Structure prediction request, 115 residues.
Amino acid sequence: MRSAVKMHAEDIGFSKLNQTKIVTTASELGRNVLEHGNGGRVMIEHIKELDRSGLRMIFQDEGPGIDNVEKALVDGYTSKCGLGLGLSGSKRLMDDFELVSQPNNGTTITVTKWT
Ligand SMILES: Nc1ncnc2c1ncn2[C@@H]1O[C@H](COP(=O)(O)OP(=O)(O)O)[C@@H](O)[C@H]1O
Ligand SMILES: [Mg+2]
Prediction:
């Protein structure tokens, strides 16, 4: 998954630094889908608007969901024994970060980076 994301990011014309930010985010959010969400899916799309171009990634699972999103986004918060930097770090690394989650109703995280 990391190399597919890197290939897309390279194709779209992101700088090396932004490629690294995108791959790091994909790795963290992908890991969360597996570790916390009981597995799910990842979609990657190239978005082209009139005046801008970017990469959007959607991470979706039907796992337990996040009951307190605000708390989950705090640096260092983990309900297991992770570093607790996946969500907060991804939010910082990307331009847009949207988290929709309800207990028992899964989690969908949509992130976008513009070139
Ligand atoms: N897809 C998910 N489904 C359910 N809970 C999640 C999901 N992603 C994150 N979480 C919750 O948010 C917390 C913080 O996530 P993160 O910042 O990646 O830290 P870590 O994975 O190291 O615990 C997790 O410990 C978990 O409780
Ligand atoms: Mg994590």
